[in-house]
Amino acid sequence: MKPAGEYLGAMVGAPIDQAALPRWRADVDTLVSHGQNLIRTSVYAWLVAPAKFEWNPEASAFYRDALGYARDRGLAINMVVPGSPDWSQDYPFEDYAEACSWFWTTMRDNFDDMVDLWQPYNEADHSHYQKFTGAPREDSDEYARYLGEFGYMLGVAREVLGRNGTPVTTNLTGWPMNDAREQEWYTVLDAIQPALDVLSLDLYPADSESEIARLAERVERVRQRYDKPVFIAEIGLQTTPGSWTEADQRAYVPAAIKTLRTGKVWGICLYELRDNESPAGFGIIRQDGSQKPGFATVMSAMAPK
Question: For residues 269 and 194, what is the distance between their CA atoms, to the nearest angstrom?
Fold first, then answer.
């Protein structure tokens, strides 16, 4: 793993077909031209593994080509993967674990030479790791069992995805950002962190100046408690109608990034580079490729030291 603070980049949505490759390459070029060295992305699991224990070599080759473009341009890759594709969503636990082991093994065998950090699951502290519904909450009878299963599956992921030495992480939600959220991180991490090489946090302080000011100290407490590197897997602010404005994004996202960079973080990843939703999203670039007002300020805050 690289030294703390060296990884800087953004989430870029994976291309789905050849028609999406120009957008992918343009986003990669944008990151590189602004001194970034990390891209956080994924593959469409239902494309590479469309049915039970069935692998699509054409789709795999397509993604190797796309990821290769990022690698050739000097970007490290943080690969986000589900447990296994949707066809395993209703499996009994043992069958699900078997399907995940197969899927992760096949992903590793096809992509591990291109990946610098594997991330199984996405905010599975709040979204069920298998069913994609809400996860049991702390005040429910099912919570301890859920955390046990989640930790077990991450252990399988680390054994499979990390077999060749590539570090494994998973991310925890950071919205809303407050003391209760930090305490919830500890509850979840106490159960799952033995299976992780890097701890990933999503941080969404939004427009709260007091929460932005406390980001570095919150992250440092997590780092010291577990003595493991902490990666900010997501930080950003959505500009969808009825939420925050592009002017808010320009003001608050750079402030949050600057605060985090005063501390000891393994890396920071903006969520996201380009809007992945319509009419707008978290991106600092709109879907049509035009820059939002905060683009230059955010990229300046993310500039390598």
Answer: 23
User: pLDDT tens for residues 181-218?
Assistant: 999 999 999 999 999 999 999 999 999 999 999 999 99
The predicted-structure confidence for 82-138, as pLDDT tens digits, reads as follows 988 899 999 999 999 999 999 999 999 999 999 999 999 999 999 999 998 999 999
**Core vs surface per residue 40-68: b (16+ CB within 10 A) or e:** bbbbbbebbbeeeeebeeebbebbbebbe
Distances (CA, A) of 166 to 19, 46, 84, 117, 299: 31, 24, 19, 6, 28
| pTM value surpassing 0.70 | yes
- What is the per-residue burial (b if ≥16 Cβ within 10 Å, else e) of 249-287? bbbbbbbbbebbbebebbbbbbbbbbbeeeebbbbbbbe
Distance CA 63, CA 66 (A): 5
Sheet containing 267-270: give its strands across.
Answer: 117-120, 76-81, 38-42, 7-11, 267-270, 230-235, 199-203, 171-172
Rounded Cα distance, 21 and 176, in Å: 34
Output the CA angle 51-53-59, nearest 5 degrees. Answer: 65
The residues near 5 (Cβ < 8 Å, ≥ 6 apart) are 261, 264, 265, 266, 267, 305
Angle, helices 179-192/209-226, rounded to nearest 10 degrees: 20
